[in-house]
């Protein structure tokens, strides 16, 4: 309990510093994986396909939790809001773990589409990736504030404002990720990249 209290005290005193540290660690894990600097066990093509499907289910659940969290805060159900948003955050951590394993130990997929479909897919994928990257510090900051302050104290912080930005960016990123997943895996097909 003492460790948790110390962590909460630090987050409360310096939420921006904690946000920056956690965000940098997340970015380093992703860049290290894509750069081939982190060791991952080699996984089979079948496992890559299974992980792709699991990631889509996790992202759909995370998006559902975000939508539920928005509903709960709008109806002043603060405990349920907190539970829904922490569930979404935990799901995103699970996504990150599986995604890094898929990329680091397996491969990425390239859609087999051409023309306008390919262009639309690439635009949606680019927006999805950009929003994912931009969402990290915003989501982490909202979570850090939410976990380190009481409900009454949160009213005096940027939690609500940051939370609205996080929900918009994160929610749209998840939605576009699901659309591109369906296009890639169930409509047009793919080849390993």
From TrEMBL:
InterPro entries: DUF420 (IPR007352). The chain crosses the membrane at residues 20-42, 48-72, 84-101, 121-144, 165-184. The keyword Nucleotide-binding does not apply. Keywords: Membrane, Transmembrane, Transmembrane helix. It holds the Pfam family DUF420. It comes from the Archaea. PANTHER family: DUF420 DOMAIN-CONTAINING PROTEIN, HYPOTHETICAL MEMBRANE SPANNING PROTEIN. This is DUF420 domain-containing protein.
